Amino acid sequence: MKTAIYVRVSTNEQAEEGYSIDEQIDKLKKFCEIKDWQVMDVYKDPGFTGSNIDRPGLKKLIRDVEKKKVDTVLVYKLDRLSRSQKDTLFLIEDVFGANHTNFVSLNENFDTSTPFGKAMIGILAVFAQLEREQIKERMQMGKLGRAKSGKAMSWHWPPFGYKHKGDSYEIVELEAQIVKQIFHDYLSGISITKLKDKMNDEGHIAKDIPWSYRTIRQTLDNPTYAGYTKYKDQIFPGNHEAIVSKEVYEEVQKQLVIRQKEAYQKNNISRPFQAKYLVSGLVRCGHCGAALGLHQYAKKKDGTRTKIYKCHSRTKKRHSTMAKADHCISRDYQKEELEAAVLNEIEKLRLNPSLMKNYSVAPKVDDTPLIKRIDELDRKLEKLVNLYLDETLPLDVLNERKEVIQKEKKAIEKKLDGVEKEKPELEKSEALGILKSLKGSILALDYEKQKVIVRQLIKQITLKDDEMVIQWRFTL
Which spans of this chain does the record mark as coiled coil (predicted)? Predict the structure, then answer.
């Protein structure tokens, strides 16, 4: 049987317990002679602690086990492999067991090839779980204690407007002015969506990425800016300087609730009663992708005006974020003709719901992989913090790995923000319910009611030359 001998001793253990690397090797080789086992190699870790598995000799052993070079791993004593129950279980089950390699400990007469050894693995698993729970509890108590004492959550990326300074935060003046502006503008009545556009138009970048709805919302909701620290749902007075007053922060929280309630009352429909015209905000140019806005010519002799939908890339006063091309070749669309065409499509659908299967509908968007990955990254970060609290991971290594994890997490959250916007808002049955509720032709409704129905059913209208493509809000 091809056997790998693994030996380890720390400097303190050698002094206190009196057995050296050479003594361990001698006893283990004699044991192999009795068993008629062939010693393939001896893996040594002199002067290394058993509190973690970051040891050169052990790493080489793991590589050779994975290459199927050995049949059995032999140690003098179980704690030579590791002093951590969870690490011991990981090595025995996930490394040795997964590669069909037996594990034997001479001192405890522990052999995973025997029924007793297999039973011991179960006992180890119980103690490993207990160890994990104790670490988790200790970590949570440590986090809660930091929050109660007003200290910054040092394992988190500092909020925009702050940088870490010891156990607290220090204000970054340039960023802090932007944070103040966001709170001020929101209280002045500007919506989060418009705030996001305003920040990006003015060139204010948040942590090297453009502002999104999510990042503006998170900024307004973050109690750190009012001088608090937060752990889970508990908020405590912090030791850092506030960027906005508590009064401003509390008023913003009230407004967030009020405006969210108003949005729900409007059935989460984009601007159902604020849009002046039937398809305002819904029409996109099929040539350059810009939105189409309504323009009107000078009054005629009879007092009427000709109203058209024109691509923003073709207007004289182009808004920086709305124009998508310098020279767009799209044409203009008469307001009455375009609106009539849209209403006729809805009327066709009302009269013949089976046409739904032929339409361009909102795609079913699965955000599960993104959410799952964020959870995985959170667990990775928690493991790193555990190792740091156990004093087995240096702070500089923790910060380095934390930065990599948080960078990936920010990128995924940005993707998730886009996915949220692509999610269908209506099931097929809900769309059918809206059509049935008309109790007659949509053409017979007044203009305001027509606007509501259009926004309930239509997500986007793309116009390219004489072609109109409607993307509906429902999914099949």
Answer: 395-429
Secondary structure letter of residue 157 according to DSSP: P
pLDDT of 156 over the 90 cut? no
Running DSSP on this structure, what letter comes out for residue 360? E
Cα distance between residue 465 and residue 333, in whole Å = 9
Q: Is 10 annotated as catalytic?
A: yes
Q: Which two tokens stand for residue 90?
A: 């990981």
Whole-number Å distance between alpha carbons of 424 and 429: 13
- Within 10 angstroms of residue 102's Cβ, the number of other Cβ atoms is 19
Q: In the chain, count of helices (H) and strands (E)?
A: 15, 18
Name residue 469's beta-bridge partners: 462
With a cut of 70, say whether residue 141 has pLDDT above it: no
Q: Which residues pair with 259 in a beta bridge?
A: none
Question: 377-420, pLDDT tens digit by residue?
Answer: 877 877 777 676 666 677 777 788 888 888 888 888 777 766 55
Q: Which of 10, 20, 191, 270 is catalytic?
A: 10
Has residue 155 got a pLDDT over 80? Answer: no
**CA gap 176, 189 in Å, rounded:** 20
Percent of the chain with pLDDT over 90: 29
Residue 155 one-letter amino acid: W
Give the pLDDT confidence score for residue 268 in this predicted structure: 39
d(CA 155, CA 159): 12
Give pLDDT, residue 226: 93
pTM for this prediction: 0.36
Instruction: Give residue 389's identity as a one-letter amino acid code.
Output: L
How crowded is the C-beta side of 106, counted as CA atoms within 13 Å? 19
* Residues 348, 353: Cα–Cα separation, whole Å: 8
Q: Tell me the β-bridge partners of 311.
A: 292
Q: Which amino acid is at 462?
A: T
**CA 228-229-230 angle, 5° bins:** 120
Token readout for 275 is: 């849009």
How far out from the chain centre does Cα 375 lie? 7
Euclidean distance between CA atoms 384 and 381, whole angstroms? 5
Q: To the nearest whole number, what is the mean pLDDT of the chain?
A: 81
Angle of helix 173-187 relative to helix 213-221, nearest 10 degrees, comes to 90
